[in-house]
Amino acid sequence: MAKRLCCAFVFALAACAGAAPPPGSLTPAATPQLEQVWRLGGFANPESAVLSADGTFLYVTNVNGEGDARDGNGFISRVSLTGEMLEREFARGLDGPKGVMLGGDALYVADISQLVVLDAATGAVRRRVPAPGAVFLNDLTFAPDGRVLIADSGSARIYASRNHTMEVWLEHELLRAVNGLLPEPDRLIVTTMEGRLLAIDYSTRQIRVLAEGLGDADGVAALGGGRYLVSAWPGQMFVVSATDGTFAQILDTRSEERYLNDFLLVNGILYQPHWEPSEFTAYRVRQ
């Protein structure tokens, strides 16, 4: 889930990503289609979303400027599942909020170099947990043991937080430009902006490469049958087979300059923030 990093970092990642990925070889039956349901404007560089505890609305992070700027301009919006802006600035006082998760009555937000915990009902900040050495915290998720895992796109690290503390959980060259995180019972699925889809064993922390060539990979969600949806933030959506590493592009918005950032898949609906042009789209996933 990263998106506008500082310019030098963006150019470096683009160089690493290389040329556009080749067509995949998934069969048509294994390739879903996306159908737009609604689109909403009025955001300020939205990056990520999570469903509310009662399942009636979304929390959406807004970076509102450069992704690495400690400017206090970031905020969180509340949006209905039918595409209505319920509250544009529900929570304020963040810098560059990106990944967001809900745990109990709290929102957990990755904010450049710290984990910010907010009250999910009021938006008030409860605490801030620094990540020593972090450069660009991005996506985050909960591991099965309850720890918060946070990707740092700028340091090839994944951090772990528990009980108001923070430590490096894993650092590896394959985690350069690490971005999206998806927890599974025995492993963590990871995307990188070097185009990789990875699987990390929780116990051994061994890394397996599931697929390569996915551009500036960002969000990830499971489709079932060993398939994953993976977005590349400049504007591509892929369906990827973790069985053999093949993939197919199912959406391309690059000509519109419509970014496809970290997304949320719930009950067959894909909720997609667009850092640019500061909009948000809901797609029905037809399989």
Structural description of this entry:
There is one protein chain. With 287 residues, this protein is mainly β. It has a single domain (7-286), classed as TolB, C-terminal domain (Neuraminidase), CATH 2.120.10.30. It is 4% helix and 53% strand. It has 1 helix and 24 strands. The chain has one helix at 7-17; strands at residues 33-40, 46-51, 57-62, 74-80, 85-94, 97-103, 106-111, 114-119, 125-130, 137-142, 148-152, 157-162, 165-171, 178-183, 187-192, 197-201, 207-211, 217-224, 227-232, 236-241, 247-252, 264-266, 269-274, 279-286. The two termini are 25 Å apart.
Give structural attributes.
Neuraminidase, four-stranded antiparallel sheet, mainly beta, 24 strands, 287 residues
CATH architecture: 6 Propeller
List the quaternary state of the chains: single chain
Shape: globular
- Most strands sheet: 4 strands, antiparallel
Low-pLDDT stretches are 1-23
DSSP strand (E) fraction? over 45%
Fold-level CATH name: Neuraminidase
Strand order of the largest sheet: 1-24-23-22
Mean of the pLDDT scores? 92
| Head-to-tail CA distance between termini | 25 Å
**What fraction, in percent, of the residue positions are helical?**
under 10%
Summarize the helices and strands and which ones pair or pack:
Elements: H1 7-17, E1 33-40, E2 46-51, E3 57-62, E4 74-80, E5 85-94, E6 97-103, E7 106-111, E8 114-119, E9 125-130, E10 137-142, E11 148-152, E12 157-162, E13 165-171, E14 178-183, E15 187-192, E16 197-201, E17 207-211, E18 217-224, E19 227-232, E20 236-241, E21 247-252, E22 264-266, E23 269-274, E24 279-286
Antiparallel strand pairs: 1-24, 2-3, 3-4, 4-5, 6-7, 7-8, 8-9, 10-11, 11-12, 12-13, 14-15, 15-16, 16-17, 18-19, 19-20, 20-21, 22-23, 23-24
